[in-house]
Specification:
Blueprint lengths: L10 H50 L5 H4 L40 E3 L12 E2 L2 E2 L5 E8 L20 E9 L5 E9 L2
């Protein structure tokens, strides 16, 4: 059979074809890869918002201060009993999340992934896995009577007592984006 009648590709043509195909695929993957990450971020943001809203509702359902949580006097703290000083904000000795009874018990709460619990102290699961895998949540509570977003205990004396507490919840998504939510609670 004459050489001019043979059909097919030479080895060099195959290698060039594979190289060109590989370069084209690298460009396509380079364009699609970052887009896939961007498409999941809104889902993480919605989940972070749901988590923060749930936790904020749980916190706001509690009494303003420990002296009110354990009293039926009908008076506000600072009227009948002193409110908790800023240096003592946080859970009372022996309290865990299920037993939190006032707003400042949540100060310093840090949970992540499978340790993120519901108000009943149970893991939040979906199909047997943690719904908030890769997420973390941190809560900060402090006095902010002038409602400027700044902790009134600027010098860290631990003696500040006020009538307005600011609740700040920071949820960090699996992508590392920290989203902050805040609310005020008044001594009423």
């Amino acid at each position: 059979m004459p050489a001019s009648a043979a059909k097919g590709f030479t080895l060099i043509e195959l290698i060039i074809g594979i190289t060109v195909f590989s370069i084209i695929m690298m460009v396509i993957i380079g364009l699609i890869g970052p887009q896939s990450r961007l498409s999941v971020e809104p889902i993480w943001q919605v989940r972070a918002s749901e988590l923060a809203q749930s936790l904020m509702s749980e916190i706001n359902a509690r009494a303003f201060d420990d002296s009110l949580a354990n009293s039926n006097s009908g008076k506000r703290c600072n009227e009948s009993a002193s409110c908790t000083p800023s240096g003592s904000l946080g859970p009372d000795p022996g309290e865990d999340r299920v037993r939190f009874d006032d707003v400042d018990d949540y100060h310093g709460l840090n949970e992540s992934g499978a340790t993120i619990l519901s108000a009943q102290g149970l893991p939040v699961l979906y199909n047997g896995e943690s719904l908030y895998s890769g997420f973390s949540v941190a809560v900060q509570v402090y006095y902010d009577d002038n409602e400027d977003g700044v902790n009134d205990d600027v010098g860290g004396s631990g003696t500040v007592i006020g009538n307005v507490k600011r609740i700040v919840i920071t949820v960090t998504t699996p992508g590392g984006e920290a989203i902050t939510f805040s609310s005020y609670r008044w001594n009423v």
